[in-house]
């Protein structure tokens, strides 16, 4: 079953994988471009339906941890793009916890 997002774009973390769901109804797969550029997921979709009738979607998603770029996969079903971005196992969590003195 395909997850239909409540918003145009949703980001989830699930067992070491970030999943990005993008609602792109009425686009054909060949009209959608997905890329990993400068540690961001970029999604673009373009459809020209004739004079004065075109649709354009452009969005970037920042991911809070390093990603194994070679392991990124994408599927498109029922108008929803589902991109899986595996967390780089060698990356440590960003930042550090700071103790509060009392």
From TrEMBL:
Residues 1-102 form the SHSP domain. It comes from the Archaea. Pfam families: HSP20. InterPro entries: A-crystallin/Hsp20_dom, HSP20-like_chaperone. Belongs to the small heat shock protein (HSP20) family. This is Molecular chaperone.
